[in-house]
Write a structure and sequence with these properties.
The structure is a single chain. By secondary structure, this protein is of the alpha/beta class. The chain has a single domain (36-316), classed as Arginase, Chain A. The protein has helices at 59-66, 81-84, 100-116, 130-142, 170-176, 201-206, 213-219, 221-228, 264-272, 297-316, and strands at 39-44, 87-92, 120-125, 145-150, 180-190, 209-212, 237-242, 279-285. Helix 4 (130-142) packs parallel to helix 5, helix 7 packs across helix 8 and helix 9 (264-272) runs parallel beside helix 10 (297-316). It is globular.
């Protein structure tokens, strides 16, 4: 299929059962070229930057399988994203399992045609290390981006075993490289044991806003969404959703679980609250299928979060 001539469509669930045919994101066509697309769905199967439990390299395959139940109408946001947007599965980055730097180069190389085609990349990891390379690719077009980062952890630590790149240093490196604007960066869901109060010195220095989990639980999703609204109209924003933002009861399949997180309902509500914000791109990361159990609830949640991000892009069009 040439996406420049034909509007990509989901496989019809009434003529092909949802458990049939090779898995693609949301049963959309797989295409080699992003030409003519509004949104490119991409997998980044890499977990060489994780510091605890591995397995996120299998995340894209897992989310593809669990996304087969995604239907075309977003009843909460009242939008048909597949009708409004030309969107397809653009396959996976060929990550280099033994090298973070080589994987970064592969991500930038793979996403370059997506950025050149002015398509919005929505990526599925992989551990949170991969986000840095996605931001590098997008910053070449957009300059410094705003950021909405859902996570249990701030991911602004410095070096790990003396090395600069791992999934806990992503947003420090992004800030140092001029890829994101600290004054337009908001982190949501931060919680759990940390190393000390100095973990937030970087945030104060660069203007990051932190919405801790207590803020969400005590004041509600609507209050957190109101704080996110300040990013509307301020330029393109990147959204990165680490599934460990959610409580392990709702997302056990992840590498660094932390107790006391978001429910799946709260997570969906927060992403829906980004309506009206211009998204340059986004990702769902840290899905680790070996820890997901037989119910695949983390994969199901990740697939639905991806659909909500896609719907936010559709509403902006």
């Amino acid at each position: 299929m040439d996406p420049s001539r034909e509007h990509p469509k989901q496989r019809d669930g009434f003529s092909s059962p949802r458990f049939a045919q090779p898995a693609t994101f949301m049963r959309l066509p797989h295409v080699e070229s992003p030409a003519g697309l509004d949104v490119a769905l991409c997998g980044i199967p890499f977990d060489g930057g994780c510091s605890y439990r591995s397995g996120a390299r299998m995340g894209p395959r897992h989310v593809r399988e669990q996304s087969s139940l995604i239907r075309p109408w977003n009843s909460a946001l009242r939008v048909h994203p597949f009708e409004r947007l030309r969107v397809a599965d653009c396959g996976d980055v060929d990550a280099v399992p033994v090298s973070i730097e080589a994987t970064f180069a592969a991500i930038e190389r793979t996403l370059a045609p997506v950025v050149e085609a002015r398509a919005v990349p929505l990526c599925v990891g992989g551990d949170h290390t991969v986000t840095l390379a996605v931001l590098r690719a997008l910053a070449k077009r957009h300059g410094r981006l705003g950021l909405v980062h859902f996570d249990a952890h701030p991911d602004t630590w410095d070096r790990y075993f003396g090395l600069p790149y791992y999934h806990g240093s992503t947003f420090r490196r992004a800030m140092e490289e001029g890829l994101i604007d600290g004054a337009r960066s908001i982190q949501v869901g931060i919680r759990g044991p940390l190393y000390g109060p100095e973990d937030f010195d970087f945030h104060r220095e660069h203007g990051f806003e932190v919405i801790r989990i207590e803020d969400v639980k005590d004041r509600g999703v609507a209050s957190a969404v109101e704080r996110l609204r300040r990013l509307e109209g301020g330029g393109p924003v990147y959204v990165s959703f680490d599934v460990d933002a959610c409580d392990p009861a709702y997302a056990p399949g992840t590498g660094t679980p932390e107790a006391g997180g978001l429910t799946s309902y709260e997570a969906l509500g927060l992403v829906r609250g980004l309506r009206g914000i211009e998204l340059a791109g986004g990702d769902i990361v840290e899905v680790s299928p070996p820890y997901d159990g037989p119910g695949a609830i983390t994969g199901v949640l990740a697939a639905n979060l991806l659909f909500e991000l896609l719907s936010i892009v559709a509403l902006a069009r």
